Amino acid sequence: MTPFFQSLGLPYEWAWTIATVLGIVIISLLVMLAVAMVIYVDRKVLGAIMLRRGPNVVGPFGLLQSFADGLKVFLQETIIPSAANKGIFLLAPIITFTVALAAWAVIPFDAGMVMADINVGLLYILAISSLGVYGVVMSGWASNSKYPFFSAMRAAAQMISYEVSIGFVLVCVVLFVGSFNMSEIVMSQKGFGLGLINAHLVHPLLFPMFVVFFISALAETARAPFDLTEAESELVAGYQTEYSSMAFALFWLGEYANILLMCSLCTLLFFGGWLPPLELPFLYWVPGIVWFLLKTFLFFFMFSWIWATVPRYRYDQLMRLGWKVFLPMSLVFVALVSGYLMAIGHFAK
After folding, report:
1. How far apart are CA 108 and CA 181, in angstroms?
2. Nearest Cα to 333, choosing from 202, 205, 203, 191?
3. What is the mean pLDDT of each run of 10 residues along the chain (349 residues)?
4. H-type helices in the chain, by residue range?
5. How far apart are the first and last CA of the chain?
6. Helix or strand or coil: residue 113?
7. DSSP state, 151?
8. Distance (Å, rounded) from C-alpha 163 to C-alpha 231?
């Protein structure tokens, strides 16, 4: 957008600033609208699987239910516990929400449709997503209540444990692609499978890593069956117990923005991003952003499906899966992928 504002006679500095601010506003609004819609979808999918109706009153087919819920929490009073550390208590949901939105800066929705097409986009996402744990830990500690504190400790251990496995999975993808740029990772999948399939997951060495990444994404976002941080039977509501009104809503929005981010990463890293599933000319008639949104929605549907059908893990099972199964497995596959690529002369290109 910078060249457009320069064509209006603005100097480069002003054109870049306006284009950047406008890009931030547009992406933030689109992500928030998407969050409102996927919360509705989440509840409808759960209702269908559990033979319930789900939201069906507010608006046609219940489509406005998320907006009604948002208005409700916006109008509620913010209650701060008297023994809480008020500054950190209010800062925690802001950090969680801000970090969840910041990661979307490098997500390409289509060819050239990205706010910051930087060469280290994948590293940026890994760094930004790891900051989300601070908001959770701060909220648990600042509440000065034992249940939120226990939940914050669980969340810190859980997120860090599975980020290690996610990191090694990303190493496998980067070895194949040779770049941390998100757009280049997508374009490397063009005709990746027998010249016909646009997806990394068709490769025998990358499909197990996709499975590890998908399950680790469930744990990273504290979704069932890894929702130990919000286990109502043990911790009331986890680190959100003492929160109400907009502070609670910011946690909720940040959580779903992170879920959508993980679904989009599954799409970009393993499922071809904005490319059509098959390398057929007529499939390119469909805009790339449509393919991207359809694939992201598919993964979100899988997230909801798992939530409705899989029972919750015990905490020791969660830690054992992360450290004793996924970590050794991802390390072994890093060695296998690098050995395979060296054997076929991939690095000599």
Report:
1. 10
2. 205
3. 76 84 88 91 91 89 90 85 86 90 92 88 90 87 86 85 91 93 93 89 93 93 82 72 86 90 95 92 92 95 91 87 93 94 82
4. 2-7, 12-49, 65-75, 86-102, 121-130, 132-142, 146-177, 182-187, 207-220, 232-235, 245-270, 288-309, 315-320, 327-343
5. 35
6. strand
7. H
8. 21
